[in-house]
Amino acid sequence: MLTAARAASNCPALVLNADHRPLSYYPLSLWSWQDAIKAVFLERVNILEEYDRTVRSARVEMRLPSVVSLKTYIRPARQPAFTRFNVFLRDRFECQYCGDPNDLTFDHVIPRSKGGRTTWENVVTACSPCNLEKGGRLPREARMVPRQRPMQPSVVDLRERGRRFPPNYLHESWADYLYWDSELEP
After folding, report:
1. pLDDT for residue 3
2. How confident is the model at residue 8 (pLDDT cuts 50, 70, 90)?
3. 27 pLDDT exceeds 90?
């Protein structure tokens, strides 16, 4: 279909809901340029901003979308999804046993081998060394108690935590659609 220079791979599109708010801030709702163009041709989105780069086919030349909005409104979730990223965000990207921000995994406080479930209330962020040290033992057996009690965060909790971790890449055309108060500096 469309061909593009390698540089186009660095042109993600910010995806907004029909009300022009991002579908999610954390992680930021982004599509690859290929997915954005496909959505344009399927008439599922409106293009609000464009990059200076273009892609071409035998019959079509178009600028890459930088910001798109859905034509149909998607109701935001009332509860955050249980994902590895959201667990890390809830725990501020720090091991809940030693505070290390490197080599993160997640740990079942009550191990699955002892009936523990994969839920917000039983999973914490752990660095690999702490996770290995704790192993399949209960916190009191391993003498390793999480710094904070694991709980299910609200969408607002995660949004507030996420303000401390803005995305590494923010294109200048996105500034009018993102609200990190005065912290946003593309």
Report:
1. 45
2. low
3. no
User: Which tokens sit at 51?
Assistant: 């990059």
End-to-end CA distance of the chain: 32
Residue of 111, 108, 82, 80 whose CA lies nearest to 96: 108
pTM (global) more than 0.70: no
At 75 the three-state DSSP class reads: coil
User: Given a cut of 90, is residue 124 above it in pLDDT?
Assistant: yes
Structure tokens at 21: 């708010």
Q: What is the DSSP letter of 22?
A: B
Question: How far does CA 34 lie from the centroid of its chain?
Answer: 19
For residue 122, what is the DSSP state? T
Q: Which two tokens stand for residue 6?
A: 């390698």
Q: Which residue has the tokens 């694991």?
A: 150
pLDDT at 182 over 60: no
Separation CA 94–CA 2 (nearest Å): 42
pLDDT at 86: 92
17, 88, 116 from 161: Cα distances, Å = 22, 10, 26
Residue 142 CA to residue 138 CA, distance in Å, equals: 6
Strand order in the sheet with 13-16: 30-31, 13-16, 61-70, 45-56
